[in-house]
Protein 1
Amino acid sequence: MTLASLSALGIVTAAVVFILAFLAHVAEWAALRGVDDGASVGTVPAQAVLVGAARVGAGSAGQEPADGGPEVSRDAGDVAVTRAETWGRMGLNLTVIGAICQLVGVVCRGLAAHRAPWGNMYEFVTTALLFVVIAYLVLMTRQNVRWLGIGVTALMAIGDGLAATVLYVGIAPLVPALHSVWFVVHIVAACLAAAALNVGAIASILFLVKSRAEHRAERTGTPIRGFLARVPDCRSIDNLAYRAHAFGFPIWTFTIAAGSIWAEYAWGRFWGWDPKETWSLVTWVIYAGYLHARATAGWRGTRAAIVAIIGIAAFWFNFVGVNLFISGLHSYAGI
Amino acid sequence: MAEHDITTSPDAAGAATPDNPRKRRTPVLGFRATMRWLWGQLTSMRTALVLLFLLAAAAIPGSLIPQTASGAVKVSDFAKAHPTLDRIYRPLGLYHVYTSTVFSAIYLLLFISLIGCIIPRITAHIRALRRQPPRTPARLDRLPEHGEALVVADQGEREEVTARARAWLRSRHYRTALDPDGSVRAERGLYRETGNLVFHVFLVVVLIAIGWNTLWGYKGSAVVVEGQGFSNNITQFDDFHAGALVDTDSLTPFSLVLKKFTVKFETGPVQRGAAREFSADVTVTRDGSASEHNLQVNHPLSLGTTKVHLLGHGYAPVVKVTDGNGRVAFQGPVAFVPQDGNFSSTGVIKVPDARPDRLAFQGFFLPTTQIGATGPVSVFPDAYNPQLFLNAWYGKPIAETGTPQNLYVLDTTGLTQVSEKGQKVSFALKPGQGYKLPGGQGSIEFTGYQRWTKIQVSHSPGLPLLFGSILIAVAGLCVSLFTRPRRMWLRITTAAGPGGGQRDDAIRVQVGGLDRADARAGLDEDVADLLAAACGQLPRNSGHDDEDGAPGLAGGDTVTGFTGEEDS
Ligand code: HEM
């Protein structure tokens, strides 16, 4: 088997594995449908329950029984929690396998092409996705963020699926405009920023979902049920979203700066309002807006989260839409 | 950071008196008060937010509609293809969005707002840097994180507790001070604001650098055929843009000769025809001395802040034209303009010196010709089967008017197309072939081809400042985003005795902490660690405890109670 076909196989396998991981996480959510978290809601941070459950593993012995709940439903709840736990771990394990396949795909691509694998959209997308899944797994070693899993695996499955079907191009050397250190710096930074901002966006989406649930729970007086009860509280999600964005924003700033230095070398102008450049700036300005929103009364929380989602939409449009729908200097050979 | 939301200035408040409700509803602001109110509004965080979003929104149309600045041809093509849209776009100025009044107004307002916002922040921040950490709040147990411990010790131990607490705080990079009431106050992460201010200030510098570049920079491009030269003089440019303050009579003096241009294309199955290498060997003469250089995409020639870039290339068929009198009226390469990725190129060969009639030829050059269903096409960008396809024109000679003519367009006024037996002639030539025009009007020979390159000469004096300030701004941004501002306080009081009295044998140590802005987690740990360190316990996993333990305080057993969250 050649390196090139090993690379392609890696990405296709990763796509399939991530679909399975996504389904496992869906099953995890579904298993918890309607399960009342009982006493843990509100009093014990949901995250602690998750961690606790993870330690306990398959058995439910360590799970504190909820006070006062009817015996039967509590048992049913325990069974559901255990089942969800199993699905969730399966999702996580599959994600690890998918990440390895993705790594093989990207590395072999570079080895086969004898260059950094960042010459066309297929290569950017697969590399950026590799960074996303690594970011998620690294976060996972620090704190339990498995609640991000459903979003991350969905993104990975869709991204790899599109990469393998729509965007795939054979291996070829770079066009001369891309022969530049600044280009390499620019692309690595872009993929890193992409990973951080995507994780931030997934957290922001979950923030909106969770905060709606929290509001409803407050209004109706009924506790949050199901998977959402096990997602950390709004404040922690918001904090994670902020940290992802705070990490991603300087890198994105640097990405644009490196890109404009590269443009100065390649085309003799650092800025030309090319659609790609314009959309990078638009994205950057939206994220500057996000950081400002968080510091402005009345914009914190929900509105800031919406700004973050608009930001990632602009980011993706720049990544995909501009390459496919608008022609400019950045439209490379073979997409 | 405090917001600058000024809703009513003092003057305005004065105008609206309680016993004059109508006046209050429509407060009459004096001119100065109005201006101050407007300034307050402009420099508020909300306004900055709105202006940021406006800027993002206003930049979008320019990415979807062709822009004159980046391609006038695209604009006219678009206008032809969409006349209805053109009627809407043109009056709205949507073909030059980024120089429009609206766009400029938004970013200028944003930067005025930015300056108005950072100047007071800078003065406030300098004051804060000089000041000691903020005073200890009256009730530490009201803080988001707090803890307290009862230490068995006599009252004389207080100072040692304080000293240990300050040592721990300093080792964690807190600035500490003693409050007048004897409590310890500490703060860290002030550099968050410093970084933030550096970032915003250097955003302004970025704008200044761009402005400088626009006013004092110039840029022009010229087509240079292999073997020919170029000298940096405004008359030699095909197109030229200069900032308002550029003296176009004294451009950086240099000249160059294009000795050889090499180009390689992909011949493999993937991306066949994609460019793989462009390389131009040039001799540059500057201040009387000549030197050899190699120019490539991404490797411009640097002459101080003046740069020479390789922007494009194409083919120049070499022809020899003999006129009706049998004299060679023109000989040499003529640059043709590439039209597609396979370098089908169009061009015009003008021979104004031909006699008795002047001659002109118009047509296209194909580097790798193949005769397809719709006629000849080029199937590869390199020259494997070059052919020249022409038709011919003749007309009365005209005097040189001196008005510049477009080299690539044939103005057919006063010209008649050459025809034979009522058929307009057109002919295809391979290298070495010639064609004799009917009626003895002359002949043309296609001797071969050369390549030409399009070079760009640009002078950008603001670039070092621009990239330097971006770098500093990013550094400031990182400092700002990765610094965690935090405040801590520690207070020692006399422990309450069982009967409501006081205990002489124990002291009560209280610690409180507060995070400013979005600090990370860990405040609770800092509070617990400070408490432990102050009480002489070894803090978890650290060897910061440099005191060798005052008698009666070392060891955990003397700490009688940790009451972490004692909310009442
Ligand atoms: C050119 C437009 C601007 C851009 C691109 C921009 C960008 C940013 C960014 C990225 C941050 C977050 C980084 C940090 O916390 O240090 C920030 C924070 C901040 N900006 Fe701006 N800014 C702009 C204009 C303004 C203006 C006009 C104001 C004044 C109203 C302002 C006030 C602030 C403040 C107070 C913060 C601190 C927020 C916090 O506490 O986290 N900015 N800005």
Protein 2
Amino acid sequence: MSKLVVTSIGPASSVQDGGRPGSQRYGLTPSGAMDRLALAAANTLVGNDPFAAAVEIGPFGATFTARGGAVRVGLSGAPRNADIGGRAVAFDSSATLAEGETLNLGFARGGSFSYLAIEHGIEGEPMFGSLAVNARAGLGSPYPRPLQSGDELETRPASGAAERRIDLPVMADAPIRVVFGPQDDEFAEESKRLFLDSEWKISATSDRMGFRLEGPVIRHLHGHNIVSDGTVNGSIQVPGVGQPIVLMPDRGTSGGYPKIATVITADFGRFAQMSAGRPFRFEAVTMAEAQAEARAFRDLVRSLPDRMRGMEDFGLNVEALQDANVAGQAVSAVDAETWQAAVP
Amino acid sequence: MPETLIPPRLLPSGDSAITVEFSRNIDDAANRRVLALDRIITAEPIGGITETVPTYRSLLVHYDPVEISFDQLGEQLLARAARALPTTGKTRRWRIPVAYGGEHGIDLEEVAKTLQTTPEEIIARHVAGDYRVAMIGFTPGWSYLSGLEKFLHMPRRQDPRLLTPAGTISIGGVQTGVQCLAGPSGWHLLGRTAVRTYQLHRDPTFLLEPGDAISFTAVDAKTFAEQDRAAEAGEFVAELVTA
């Protein structure tokens, strides 16, 4: 048995997969990866199912050491400086750690969450069909909590397969698309316009439950208390203070604030990767457009195996690329203290 | 005020879920409609639905937009919602033991004072109630019950507590509830039960279902302690009166 030992890691890092939908009627949140496309890309690079469990790494750096044999990994999501024992490694590609070698990952640049998939997957005991960590409910495997230094992720030895890279569409710097509802009738037309016409920023006090937005105050027509109803990933609820909160995969399954709109499925991962403090806008689309985009997103995930290439024509000047790309360390949307305080 | 909306409103919750809303308020008739629609969908599944989440006044229907569109699903949901309410079949009834007051229910005295009565009467009234699980939500096993008598209706606390104990039995607004995990709450804490409505590695993991009938019995602190040990070992502790 090979294993990847977590030799150092920051907060907001945990094992995540496609999540555990199916028990929301009992109050059990689905959890799962913040950026599903990046999870799928990392897994595809090492031949895993797209939504198999991988390590979701928060904005800070991390190091992993192979023990008991070689370990092959796939890296995707928020790019970082990466090397294995001084040998530069590119994001959106696979790499193999020989026994005893250490993978060093720097801070996330231009995003918050990176995914490290391990060839053959992570050994664990699925709960409700998932290894995803939900610290509040005591769920997740091999550890029902965020990862810490010294944790060990067991897997089978590396196959020795040739390394691959994957071409992903460039993330558009476009507005985050939403469909209005379910409670947009709790807001005046003027408030809805203000919501669409304003610049928003994600607050540093955000976590896997919700991203708080900073911008103009959005007022309700009839007050901010509604009878609790069900929530989804991307529900944009507006509490009394008028600063919206976008619900993320560790959300409560029900909520009692009016929800003005919902982030569309195809844009959810791009939204989750939005760095704190960076201005962005929302754009309303029709249901037909949102559903067409959801289908296109599904097709994109399915096309990932066809988007892989060998490393030969990659022009291995990774270090130069990385140097060119360091535009200051991005401030993450995830606040370490908030996230840790939520752990019982 | 007209309460139950027939037909219900179909509200988009993004591109992969529809909220089927039967009322804007907490309303038992609407909740029965919600649970009835939920049962009809279980009995006669619609392709593309991935899961349903009943709440007080609406049913949240998650679906895969690759399988079925908003319009197609909405049409089928409205057709099912238009059916007459099924005559109530067998209802499960649970009797849940509660240690009221003292360290287990730190707000009991204050609630009695506010309602200008004695703690004993608050307990007697709460125990006399015939409740139903209207919804489970927020955190695993948090069961919101309908059927709280008017006398016990009280606004929530001005300052919600950040941490209330696992098993808390509390009242807030027109509702009473069984809280499973420790967590924040703005409700008034009347007591605690040893019953785990959610317990990993127990079969079933979730004890209560939306629609279950609930009554409470008062137990002393010593009994609570014994039941708490039994529940930790995997016993239900709650008594299934009718199945």
Protein 3
Amino acid sequence: MTLQTVKQQIDQRALPSLYLVTGNEPALVQKAHRLFASIIDPAEQEMNQSTYDFAEVGLDPILDDYLSAPFFGDHRLVLVENPTFLTAGSKLTANQEKALQEALDHPVPGNLLILFANEASLDKRKKVTKSILSQAELLDLPALDERQTRQALHQFLDQRRVEISQEAEAELLLRTQASYSKVLAELPKLLAYASQTKTIDLTGVTGLVPKESTAQAFDLADLVLKQKKAEALHLYYDLIKNGEAPLRLNALLLGQFRLLLQVAGSAGSDQSVGSALKVHPYRVKLARQSLRHYRLGQVRTGFLQILQMEIKMKSETVDPLFLFENFMINFR
Amino acid sequence: MAYQALYRVYRPRTFEQMVGQEVITKTLENAIEQKQTGHAYLFSGPRGTGKTSAAKIFAREVNGISEGHANESHPDIIEIDAASNNGVDEIRSIRDSANYAPIEAPFKIYIIDEAHMLSTGAFNALLKTLEEPPAQVKFILATTEVQKMPATILSRTQRFEFKRLSNETIKNRMTEILHQENQAFEDQALDVVATAAEGGMRDALSILDQVIAYGPDKITLENALTVTGSVKIDQLLTYLNQVLDQDTAAALATLSAILLAGKDANRFLADLMATLRDVMLVDLAPDLVKATSKVEELKAFKTKISQDQLQQMLVVIDDVKTQLAASLQSDIYLEILTVKLTLSDEDKSQPVSKGQSTQTPLTNGATEKQVKPTAKAVDTDQIKSAAVYALDTKQDTTTGVRVAKTLQAQPAAIEAANQHAQQEQAPSTKPEQNTDLLAEDDFAGEEPGSPVEPEVSRPVAEPKQSTADTQEQPAQATTATSQPATRALPTVYIGQEPVQAVLSQAKRERLTQAQNIWPDLVKGFAVKDQAVLQTVEPMASSDQALILAFDFPAIMDASLQNNDLLANLANALRENQLPETLVLRSKDEWQNDRAAYVAALRSGQKIEISLADLTPTVLEANHDQVAPMIETANQEKVDQGPDLVQEAKDLFGDDLVVVTKTDDEGK
């Protein structure tokens, strides 16, 4: 089920007693939080809504709360973060397990137990996991892919009557790695920027959305391969100025070259390659795009030279900046 | 009023006054105007880019405090320096006090500077507050090192990244300030200051302050250079120019002047490298050059020096730097460095990149040995090419020291050379050529680790190198061709292609024959040669050629130099009706080659390389004997031939060294 169905359930007051929320899109999970909170009247929230971190408090206070009747109201909401007892990580005692099962089988009417498992990988062989999976309403909130993110972004901006230029949108997705949650986090700034012009332009995005260092390594690798030596040197300097450790930069650069080589050597959809290489499919897509412009031999040489650079950094007392300059100037 | 530093006087008080961060200031202003400010901000960026100023301005404007009160402290704007208040307790007290309503203004604003200095516990304590802050509270964190901030903090704040200011922005701002201050200045001086500031306005103004203090009347270029320490590069450039002009004496004098002035040897080397780096970058990224004032000089220097030369100089300097670390005699090393640098510039006409220079001598060395005429016929073309090759090789020899050193390694080669000398009428040109070439061979032998590259089978592999020497070639060729053949040396191939060629026509019975005979054959050799040959195994054989695999590449290389051994081997093989043509390979290479061959066969590829199509590596080069020592003559302008003969005798004993005739130093 989706957030939409949850909303309907809430509107129709047809609420089950147990929800299990999974998925790795933080922004949507937050939204689910807010949605569930809306079940309880704000005035009652103090009494009838509580959030527990299972890893910190254990099961007992959660069950106590869940089994108490709502205090002046129709519902009592118990939100549980980190339900690690559903994973291979931790275990309930036999008594706890029994008590939990009992509580699930005979819930206090109106009470809701909501487990936020999010990214945790559930151990489906466990008895307790099995029974919860069978009894709970499952709300899965997987990460939005690039297309969905774009769509959500447009929807968001349309509602506020703000436009975004095409290159600004591309840059925004690039800098946030097309992650919906990250895009959402950047939007308040961009909206404030565009509050007069009602248009988000490229200057705004480049000036306001910080680049992750992985994205910058991507840029750096790009500049290196495109032989834009001056730009590459400038970027490297800026990164160092920003306090990046040369060794880390080198590792990122190496990783990017490696990714290019890996992507060049693998077939399949962006998704499947991404999951095989354990990188975001968007990065695979970008790598494929850039691979069209580079000679593979060059990528390979670059990879080896950067590797050499790392060895030198670790074994000699050479200024890393100097090493990079030297590499950059001689790389072709 | 007491003097106030420029950067304090001119600290921006409104968003309009902030330069270089227009997008950020505009966004913050808009947010305030629309009353849509967030509850937690993170300002990151290098120092001097306006983070703290922006935080202060933002705090005032959110609370509607006018510009005039900028310097007064306000009870609801609380500034904390996390560098000195980094514990959990400080953050807890913030958390507690955050729960009280602001006193005068609409918002209570905490500015936490250098936020990355907070301890982990403090971060966690802050986290809870950032997550659900009281409605009337805002946090502004400022940091220079955003990568030290936990991700949990980053995701809960609106993050603004302040950019390094461009030199132009800094310069414009300085010009503005100096006009306001009624301070005279030279425009170029501001360039120097802006570069030295590396993108930070505060640094720029501090340096400017110092320059003013140094010469209050006017900000001059000279003063700016003195304050930023850019003057010393003059001497370094002089030194480098002298080195490049091969004016060793002058360079040494400059060096001693620099050292006398009290400069540390390591410092000198570091500066030297920094200067060469500047040279390297001067065309590419002029604004990254450290020695801004000398851009013209650097450019001039750059036109004089090739990229490869520059690389070589850097390598030499780097070597010396390493050596220096293990020595107390720093001055001597620097003097040696000077000499080395001047000498290494010999290559100017024909720069050899580092990768090449390690490889080519090996290749040449291997070839050369084999350039001896076979007993039957002398292929003049081959000798010619070998002669050209020999010349190429010499490009890498620069010092007599190396000649002497390498000589020591190859007594057999010398012997062989001398035998030739007995039989041949060498032209009356300088006989040192002979030793020089030998030395080259040995130089090749010095690199046992490097595998022999496939190009080896093509003697004139590098036309570029050969042509560089065209003017010298004719002399060489003629002298070389005048050599009569004396001794039967086998034809030797190295490289992968010959292996494939032999494999494609391999005959099992031939190999069995060779393998059976081999142990006995080896026994017929002198003990030292036996030692070598025992590490060798026949691996495959066709009717024409035999593949021998060596356990150790180093021994293979040495054997290639060892004419005696090869000649004896050829004899022995002929006596046993085995093919005289040899393909030498190290065992590892052989394994690879065979695997490659098998793989190719499996994939259905037909291998049609025939040995005849490949140029053998070995033809005997008798020009050992002959060729004039052009290089030595050019480079060292010293005739060191007799010394070398003497030296060889000293090293190997009189009975081993048989020096026969030659015209100018008959023996």
